[in-house]
Amino acid sequence: MRRQYLAAWVLLLLLPMTNITMVFAKQYSSHLNKQFEVALRTEQSNLSQSQLSQKTDFEHESTDLIANVLYRRLSGLYRTMMPNGANGANVLWLHNQARHWYIEEQRYGEDLIIGGLIKNDPQAIEAGFKMFDWGFSHQVDDGSFFMTGDNFHSTSFFVQSVAHTLLVIQQSPYSEKYASQVAKYKPLVHRAARWMILPNVWKKGIKSNKPYTHRRYLVAAALGLTGKLTDDEELIKYARKSIQEGLSLQRTDGVNPEKGGHDSSYQTVGIMYAQRWVTYLPSDSLTPKVAQMIDKSLSWEQTRILPSGEISSEGNTRTGGQERIRNGSRYKKVGPGSQIRTFAYWASVTGNQKWEESARQLAKFYYKMP
Questions:
Q1: Range of the domain at 297
Q2: Does residue 238 lie within any of the structural domains?
Q3: How many domains does the chain have?
Q4: What are the distances in angstroms from CA 277 to CA 16, 21, 64, 303?
Q5: Residue 78, pLDDT above cutoff 80
Q6: Residue 314 lies in a domain
Q7: Among 68, 62, 73, which Cα is nearest to 360's?
Q8: Closest listed residue to residue 132, CA positions, set 57, 182, 205, 79
Q9: pLDDT (tens digit, 9 = 90+) per residue, 150-196?
Q10: In which band, very low, low, confident or very high, does the pLDDT at 18 lie, cut at 50, 70 and 90?
């Protein structure tokens, strides 16, 4: 009985100490959270004031891993292209093996032309122009592409690829050689971008894009780069709307959600287009916020890189067995291309080598680079 009384007294003595400890722990945790928030605000403030690289997009595209990993086998991009320039799912459509064609399938002319400029590969460049020519041969008077599937989204892919390519050509050592092609495509891509902002087209397109954050940055790049190319301020105004909406969707952990969750592949697709905004519109008031978004997004993407260098698809909402590609032949994969590109490109823009290290880690796993 005396032992029970003693135990009760000890418990009574310890209770206040426990409460004090709990209060102290709660206060300490709150202090750490406040420190973290201050540090995060300071980091974001420094980023907004930092001087980003003054290199051209052509120079960023020429950085080691992009040039020598992503552009090293350009022939593979046009091996399945038809002689008339039709590519991908559009080949099946021409052979009556698919119900729809998609203008976006012609966007790979971008990689062929830019890669060809960097690697001095005229055959790849000509193949890229063929892809663009086939696409524009289906353009109608209002700027749209006749009966293309998923018309707004598919068109935004193609517009971005053409505008981006023409801007890079102008920065390259071959600008004079391909000046006639730039002059030829400029009014065509401008007309397609102007179609995108027609009131009824824009309203339907934005509604369709709602579940996909990466599409905000794609649309912004398509319109923003075309606006830059053609001096069309109205296109840039619409691009800013899309950028602002994309920024509003980012989660506190850095995820740019796709269909209500995260996706380690589409995360970097969106980043890729946002990076082009930073390069071509460095003085825009939204650009510091876009740069901060990219930093947070890539920091989250780093958590998806396994120790081996493979990209995890665990929990993805769209890739790794969730959705099929346009021709339905297979499920979408978590491909390493946009991941390597965005890490390597951002290292070139910011001078921060931690992004370069992530790009090399991925290249070692997927491309067996030393």
A1: 210-370
A2: yes
A3: 1
A4: 58, 50, 22, 25
A5: yes
A6: yes
A7: 68
A8: 182
A9: 999 999 999 999 999 999 999 999 999 999 999 999 999 999 999 99
A10: very low
